[in-house]
Amino acid sequence: MDYLQIQGPTRLSGEVRISGAKNAALPIIAMMLLAKNRVEIDNMPEVVDIKTLLKLIENLGGNFALEDNHLSIETHKITNTKATYDIVKTMRASILVLGPLLARFGHCEVSLPGGCAIGQRPIDLHLKALEQMGASISIHAGYVQAVAEDGLKGAEIIFDKITVTGTANIVMAAALAKGKSTLINCAREPEVVQLCEVLRDSGVSIEGIGTSQLTIYGTDRRLIEIEPFSVIPDRIEAGTYLCAGAITKSTMSITNANPHHLSAVITKLEEMGCTFDITEDRIEIRPTEFIKNVNIITQEYPAFPTDLQAQFLALSTQADSTSSIEERLFENRFMHVSELQRLGADIKISGNTALVAGESELFGADVMATDLRASSALILAALVAKGETNIHRIYHLDRGYERLEEKFISLGANIKRLKE
Ligand code: EPZ
Question: Which of 7, 280, 295, 371 could form a disulfide with 414 if both were Cys (CB 3.0 to 4.6 A apart)?
Fold first, then answer.
């Protein structure tokens, strides 16, 4: 296995280009199951999770070519509707094929995703909504078996909780259903917005895009023609690099970003003392020598994103006093804390809130990545820790950060990818 070796402390400079958003690309790839044509997509991030879902689509009978961040994909020859455990167990977002497969074929079997490091992450809301659309759902031998032989029917769906992939799954199911669906309490993340926009541009009638209530008029199983488009920039990758500038007190820039998707994040960094020069697709961060402490509560978009909680927790170790970080979406998303403590951070967990002491002098050590975003928090801490830090199990990072060490090296970081 690979590990990252980072020498700190370090300053950064220059600029990095933000890649396409993994969490937009995943539902988009599942949506290809609704297309009758070969679809051309640009700014596709070449990260492990994307390759995993593409392999699943290939196993179903689709085919694709992914090169230089361009994906060319077609699924009209698909006959197999079983998403098997061997792939789904490696990437829970595979559940995104459930809605499209069921809507198009009237039946499918999708392996239950199983547990996840950051929390139990059930899919009950996905299944309940599909049943309301006329599907018969049963769980057998670790698989979701879904049947709707006459196709899905439009329905009024109220999500008990805001769920990002749940909203995406049901939007795709409703797109091919017969009649009108009204979805209430939807996720409003930019990644869900792009999915809806591509469907709308492909002739599916959708009202309320960007709001928590969507009205979708299904095509009654008629496949759609999807024109070429580009994946939106990854706001979580962008936020991660902004935190790198803030924690190393470096002036640096990110390009190909969408500042509108980062309002809550930029506001928090301003609260901590950073200033910015922002244009349409470029953000320059000007850090502060004295980082102010901060209080953060993670909530659904457009509030502060849970996927940047770990990164801000690492940044808070360098603030002038104690910060409070409350994780409201997942029940076990503080695994980076024990690793940060190995670097010298002083953090106390009480329930789902972390109290992070400021002015922590960090020292390099061996640490272990536990999940995708926690791993990026360890890199941020390693950039300011005195001495050598080795971050192990970085396959977690490769799931969602494209060319990570290449980008950090271009910013001046002393970082190497080595073999255990
Ligand atoms: C998406 O996960 C993202 N993944 C996650 O990013 C992100 O952390 C999360 O949304 C929250 O923003 C992708 O988009 C591929 P949820 P998702 O359904 O859709 C509960 C990353 O690092 N819930 O919005 O799985 C659930 O337990 C990943 O890129 C149910 O109870 O998250 C959680 O507490 C990590 N029943 C809350 O809702 C359900 O049926 C939000 O989950 C579904 C969800």
Answer: 7
Give the whole-angstrom CA distance, residue 244 versus residue 391.
16
361 CB neighbour count, 10 Å cutoff: 12
Query: Backbone dihedral region of 334: left (phi > 0), alpha (psi from -120 to 50 degrees) or beta?
Result: alpha
Q: Tell me, using a 6 A CB cutoff, whether residue 126 lines ligand 1.
A: yes
Q: What is the CA radius of gyration of the chain?
A: 21
Q: What does the pLDDT look like over 70-84, one tens digit per residue?
A: 999 999 999 899 999
Residue 165 CA: nearest ligand 1 atom is 19
- The model's pLDDT over 369-413, given as tens digits with 9 standing for 90+, comes to 999 999 999 999 999 999 999 999 999 999 999 999 999 999 999
Catalytic residue positions, numbered: 116
For residues 272 and 266, what is the distance between their CA atoms, to the nearest angstrom?
10
Closest approach atom of ligand 1 to CA 400: 29
Q: What is the DSSP string of 238-282?
A: HHHHHHHHHHTT--EEEES--GGGGHHHHHHHHHTT-EEEE-SSE
330 in contact with ligand 1, CB cutoff 6 A? yes
Q: Which two tokens stand for residue 412?
A: 């001046």
User: Does 117 score more than 80 pLDDT?
Assistant: no
Residue with CA closest to ligand 1 atom 41: 163
Buried b / exposed e along 69-98 (16+ C-beta atoms within 10 A): bebebbbeebeebebbbebbebbbbbbbbb
123 lines ligand 1 (CB under 6 A): yes
- Do 216 and 175 touch, CB atoms closer than 8 A? yes
Find tokens 């190909």 and name the residue. 256
